[in-house]
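Sync notes, pocket subgroup
Present: LS, DG
LS reminded everyone that the earlier model was apo-only. Rerun requested with adenosine-5'-triphosphate included. Inputs:
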Amino acid sequence: MVRFENVGLRYGMGTEVLRDISFAIEPQSFQFLTGPSGAGKTTLLRLILMSLRPTRGFISLFGQDVSQLGKDEISAIRRRVGVVFQDFRLLDHLTTYENVALPLFVQGQEDRTYRPQVVELLRWVGLGDHIHAYPPVLSGGEKQRAAIARALIVQPELLLADEPTGNVDPTLARRLLRLFMELNKSGTSVIIATHDLALMDQFDSAKRFVLGEGRLHIYD
Ligand SMILES: Nc1ncnc2c1ncn2[C@@H]1O[C@H](COP(=O)(O)OP(=O)(O)OP(=O)(O)O)[C@@H](O)[C@H]1O
């Protein structure tokens, strides 16, 4: 569902941050993306999400050459992808419930059809007591969990998560990993960027994509 061939990326006139990156993400696969700080993990996720264009090479998403896509096609493809950003990107004027339900609301679904599902997911991520709270009063870890719930609520075909357990304690990190694994079992391909070795050790059979000095090494 994602294919990179000899992709290179430089910011401005700088040296290449990513060099000759080639890989494929299969349907219903699970991979961790790791590597030292500054190695290019966020950059790689942004290339997949088409918020950055490669300087060279070929990228396809859901079988389509991304260099040929127009604005509407890019929006349509993005709706098939769930994203958890490092900075959460919650809307401060909406409650936690409204933030998580937003993708369903935007699809035109009615509140009564998705309310039980949204409330259950919020409870699962430990936000049952914060359903009506606004993001500015949530802790970093609570915001992160709300962002995760918002990405999962539509059961996307592909989930990209940038350090999704960076602000939570190890017990909660394990619980969130289980949630990602459940989502994966029900059909979603998952890519999690993380530094957390203990987290990766809990899911041995996941592939590891390791970035270093601009290159990607894949361990099955
Ligand atoms: N918008 C930008 N303009 C210029 N350079 C950038 C930009 N974004 C990232 N970089 C540089 O590209 C390199 C890769 O950054 P990136 O954020 O992708 O790394 P990362 O592996 O996600 O790091 P971290 O683990 O610290 O989040 C870094 O050297 C960074 O300084």
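DG: Strands lie at 2-10, 16-25, 30-34, 56-61, 64-65, 81-84, 158-162, 189-193, 207-212, 215-219.
LS: The chain is about 35% helix and 25% strand.
Action: DG to write up.
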